[in-house]
Amino acid sequence: VQLVESGGGLVRPGGSLRLSCVASGFTSSNYVMRWYRQAPGKERELVATLTSTGVRTVFMDSVKGRFTISRDNAKNTVYLQMNSLKPDDTAVYYCKTRIGGADYWGQGTQVTVSA
User: Fold this and answer.
1) CA triplet 39, 100, 55: central angle to 5 degrees?
2) pLDDT tens, position by position, 16-52
3) In this predicted model, what pLDDT tens digit does every residue of 75-103 receive, in sequence order?
4) How far apart are CA 20 and CA 3, in angstroms?
5) What DSSP string describes 8-54?
6) Residue 59 half-sphere exposure, CB side, CA atoms within 13 Å?
């Protein structure tokens, strides 16, 4: 099982990014996929989830209406579309899944929102 995130970078406030989480070793559409983020000096927080039945939930009030989680089953990839980015969105973003009671994390991708 492997998760590899990409798509982060430096973006100006108001800009957009789409993060990707490519899964291998398992079929991601069969499991709940989650995006987390960890800002400097803060704990890791759950941003959004996507269930195997396609239910999407954004947990962070601060990103509701701006962030969307989705998947491409053919590519075994989960995305986090981030619009209207703010400096407070600066963080390392991780995807995660749980299989058989074990948690699997990607290595993270850095998102920096700055003018």
Assistant:
1) 60
2) 999 999 999 999 999 999 999 999 999 999 999 999 9
3) 999 999 999 999 999 999 999 999 999 99
4) 10
5) -EEE-TT--EEEEEEEESS-GGGS-EEEEEE-TTS--EEEEEE-TT-
6) 11
